[in-house]
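To illustrate the input format used throughout this study, we show a single complete record. The first block contains the structure-token representation of the backbone; no residue identities are included at this stage. The design step must infer an amino acid for every position from geometry alone.
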């Protein structure tokens, strides 16, 4: 029989998404449930892959199976494709395994020609409907399959409507639509050099090829990259009997969700249009009617639709996105799929469905994507600033709120320019009359999306919700002039580059910038509850990277169980401290050489910094009372604290030119230049830093340890429970660690004896040099804990500078497929990850209860967290705002493992 590529909706075989795509699997399942589905069949996504691999040639047997299935469909319905008496018309739709709304192509009304349009007229007794269907076929087929610029059809249609004095397509009668059909055919002929194909089988073959090719189209690729959908899946093709929503006032079409995909509220949400076809709703060309009014317009259909929607949600156990058509009062379902939703809606729906007994807590945790947690902490307008903006009369317009969040940015009216501006890290709001899949590259780079047309289920709304972008749609009072690159509402005009602000929860659009605030975790009770469930199911704890008491407080608010990295060099960067730090560094080198004046200067700087550091550590340890705080001893490339050598050279040269060589200032600047020169390193990131700094200048580490223990003693005296863990960074040799740690243990002992208080503390090290991971068993004999510094470990393992590579060539590596992901964002499991695994294994072989964590950027990356859970780390440490994301990811990692 050969390989099977084509499946009828009524077949029970291979009902999987990988064999039928998401849409095809849904249509088959609904058919088998006995729901009102127009019959049809699906071509396997594998046929798409073969087609693209074989130079746009169908795989052997596929086309023959397609024609056979077409004949069976004709027999089932009793109509024949292209028949001049009673023609069958079909749609040809894409359907990948993962939802890609609007990214690939669809052809409707296929099978019409000069003969069959007469048959359709006779059967329906409605020439206007038949001619409208024909012009839609030519327009869709012409642009999608034959490559004609779609704007040419729209311009011609607008020209004809203007000439007839009407504004809506529905105002055109049959005679005018015949003119439109002839004009559209002429456009196809003049633009392609070929006539519009009249043979329905040719139409079908070309349409299937076009849908296959759309998988490789630029907009589909851009969308897959943004959503991390694999490129090798291919798309199915669904060929289905057409049903018509444009057959009068008892017909219509719509898209609806079983719950509100913006808020999660348990009610039907969506839009429909009377006397329209499906693309009219999605394209946003006509302003649709809310689904809540279907009961007024077609009450009998509404009852059936509500029952069907409830049944689908119950069957699939999740919120459904349903496309439907009503033909002369009869309901048909064209698609159901798991609904894309905002982060707010996703969380509420998951928690509500646990309360309703529909899903388990574990399933609720699995359903939320980590990036959605991030989106839930999106900014919103500061209430005071919003009141001020309203009082100043800066409210420009109000549209339909489609995707929550508040955003300000420069308005841009073209997707290409939005992409360019976004790549320059400018804050952009993309404004269009309506968006289409061709705008996807600009939508990805924009912070927000505004349209003057369309409803809650328009392309702009659906894509924005899926991407977590703020969106306001259907702002009808806003007139957008793409040619002049401006928009206006009332007497106000906004030009490209001007700033506007939008509220995706209220639909308000303001002139200028409105300040925002970040909501706290407790502001979202559903997320708070979900993350509590997540913590109960996690093995990994989530700690935070924090350098100030304010950061520590924020980390606690977001649920951190400790501080995994406090970077003391960040404390030294404050302007009032920088002169003292410079004094310490510049005098240190001379001090160790025996210069007594330099020694005095060095000790003076340390004494001043001791007081500052003690207060720093006291603040953080107090905030984290009873929880561990890992404090890394000073680990900067020293040049970061010093004046630039080049600036000093210029200054000294200018003083020489001005004849100031005998001045005290000149002598001071010259000596400073000499000291800076003596500290210049060819590769400072691999130079005098970390444990090496402590070996050369032990007084610096001793000052910091004294400050830590003194702060802890003071807090313990007040009844608190400080738990400092002191990290010695950049160790490569166990002897380095021994020399430095022995000195610092002595310092800690001395302070506790002075204070008369015992402090529970630990000494450990950061594993960030490959040699440390390879000799972790030896290092574990001394260290109380390990913390993997995966930023430097990645640099040193793969020999790539993070600062240079990310902007120069790593993007190119990912695009070419050399790397699947940026190794500084997601852990390189085969290389860097293997060192982590080996370090854990060797360390625990010596100390089975050795505390091990990670404090690099990877600590907040969900994919990396899954790996760290697998290899047995105790905790991951991330920036405070990534803590909620990491908490969810840690739970999902453990659920996956178990």
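Output of the design step:
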């Amino acid at each position: 029989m050969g390989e099977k590529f084509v499946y009828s909706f009524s077949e029970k075989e291979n009902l999987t998404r990988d064999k039928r795509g998401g849409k095809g699997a849904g249509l088959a399942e609904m058919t088998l449930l006995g729901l009102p589905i127009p019959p049809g069949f699906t071509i396997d996504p594998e046929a798409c892959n073969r087609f693209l691999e074989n130079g746009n040639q169908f795989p052997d047997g596929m086309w023959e199976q397609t024609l056979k299935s077409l004949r069976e469909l004709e027999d089932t319905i009793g109509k024949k494709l292209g028949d001049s008496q009673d023609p069958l018309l079909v749609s040809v739709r894409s359907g990948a395994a993962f939802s890609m709304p609007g990214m690939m192509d669809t052809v409707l009304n296929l099978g019409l020609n000069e003969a069959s349009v007469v048959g359709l007229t006779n059967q329906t007794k409605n020439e206007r409907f038949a001619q409208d269907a024909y012009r839609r076929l030519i327009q869709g087929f012409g642009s999608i399959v034959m490559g004609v610029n779609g704007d040419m059809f729209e311009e011609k249609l607008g020209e004809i409507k203007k000439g007839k004095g009407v504004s809506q397509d529905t105002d055109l009668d049959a005679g005018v639509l015949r003119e439109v059909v002839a004009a559209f055919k002429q456009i196809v002929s003049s633009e392609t050099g070929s006539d519009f194909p009249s043979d329905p089988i040719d139409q079908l073959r070309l349409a299937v090829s076009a849908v296959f090719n759309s998988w490789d189209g630029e907009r589909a690729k851009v969308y897959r990259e943004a959503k991390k959908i694999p490129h090798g899946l291919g798309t199915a093709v669904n060929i289905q009997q057409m049903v018509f929503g444009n057959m009068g006032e008892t017909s219509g079409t719509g898209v609806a969700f079983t719950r509100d995909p913006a808020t999660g509220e348990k009610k039907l949400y969506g839009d429909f249009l009377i006397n329209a076809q499906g693309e009219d709703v999605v394209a946003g060309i006509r302003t649709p009617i809310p689904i809540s009014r279907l009961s007024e317009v077609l009450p009998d259909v509404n009852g059936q639709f509500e029952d069907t929607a409830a049944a689908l949600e119950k069957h699939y156990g999740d919120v459904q996105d349903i496309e439907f058509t009503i033909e002369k009062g009869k309901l048909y379902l064209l698609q159901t799929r798991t609904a894309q939703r905002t982060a707010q809606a996703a969380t509420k729906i998951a928690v509500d469905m646990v309360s309703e007994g529909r899903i388990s807590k574990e399933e609720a945790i699995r359903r939320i994507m980590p990036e959605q947690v991030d989106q839930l902490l999106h900014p919103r307008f500061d209430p005071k600033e919003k009141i001020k903006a309203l009082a100043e009369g800066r409210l420009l317009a109000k549209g339909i709120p489609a995707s929550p969040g508040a955003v300000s940015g420069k308005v841009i009216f073209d997707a290409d320019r939005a992409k360019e501006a976004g790549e320059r890290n400018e804050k952009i709001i993309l404004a269009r009359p309506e968006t289409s899949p061709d705008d996807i590259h600009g939508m990805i780079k924009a912070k927000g999306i505004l349209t003057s047309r369309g409803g809650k289920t328009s392309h702009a709304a659906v894509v924005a919700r899926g991407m977590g972008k703020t969106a306001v749609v259907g702002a009808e009072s806003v007139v957008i002039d793409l040619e002049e690159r401006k928009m206006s509402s009332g007497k106000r005009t906004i030009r490209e580059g001007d700033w506007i602000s939008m509220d995706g929860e209220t639909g308000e659009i303001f002139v200028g910038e409105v300040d925002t605030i970040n909501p706290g975790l407790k502001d979202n009770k559903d997320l708070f509850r979900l993350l509590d469930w997540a913590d109960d199911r996690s093995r990994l704890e989530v700690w935070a990277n924090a350098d100030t008491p304010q950061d520590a407080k924020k980390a606690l608010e977001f649920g951190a169980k400790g501080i995994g990295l406090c970077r003391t060099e960040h404390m030294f960067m404050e302007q009032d401290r920088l002169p003292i730090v410079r004094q310490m560094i510049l005098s240190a080198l001379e001090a160790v050489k025996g210069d007594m004046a330099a020694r005095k200067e060095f000790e003076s700087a340390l004494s001043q910094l001791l007081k500052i550091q003690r207060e720093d550590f006291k603040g953080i340890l107090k905030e984290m009372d009873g929880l561990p705080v890992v404090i890394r001893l000073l680990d900067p490339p020293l040049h970061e604290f010093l004046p630039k050598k080049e600036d000093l050279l210029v200054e000294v040269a200018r003083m020489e030119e001005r004849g100031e060589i005998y001045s005290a200032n000149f002598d001071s600047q010259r000596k400073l230049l000499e000291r800076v020169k003596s500290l210049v390193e060819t590769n400072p990131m691999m130079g005098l830093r970390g444990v090496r700094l402590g070996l050369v200048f032990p007084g610096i580490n001793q000052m910091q340890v004294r400050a830590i223990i003194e702060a802890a003693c003071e807090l313990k005296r007040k009844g608190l429970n400080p738990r400092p863990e002191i990290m010695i960074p950049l160790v490569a040799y166990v002897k380095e660690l021994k020399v430095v740690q022995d000195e610092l243990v002595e310092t800690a002992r001395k302070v506790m004896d002075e204070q008369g208080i015992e402090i529970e503390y630990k000494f450990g090290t950061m594993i960030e040099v490959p040699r440390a991971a390879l000799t972790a068993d030896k290092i574990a004999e001394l260290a109380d804990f390990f913390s993997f510094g995966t930023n430097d470990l990645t640099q040193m393992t793969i020999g790539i500078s993070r600062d240079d590579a990310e902007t120069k060539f790593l993007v190119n590596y990912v695009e070419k497929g050399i790397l699947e992901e940026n190794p500084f964002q997601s852990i390189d499991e085969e290389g860097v990850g293997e060192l982590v695994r080996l370090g854990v294994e060797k360390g625990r072989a010596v100390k089975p209860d050795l505390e091990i964590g990670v404090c690099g950027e990877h600590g907040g990356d969900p994919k990396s967290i899954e790996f760290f859970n697998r290899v047995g780390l105790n905790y991951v440490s991330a920036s405070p705002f990534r803590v909620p994301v990491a908490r969810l990811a840690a739970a999902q990692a453990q659920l996956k493992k178990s």
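Structural context for interpreting the output: The two ends are 42 Å apart (CA to CA). The chain has 37 helices and 33 strands.
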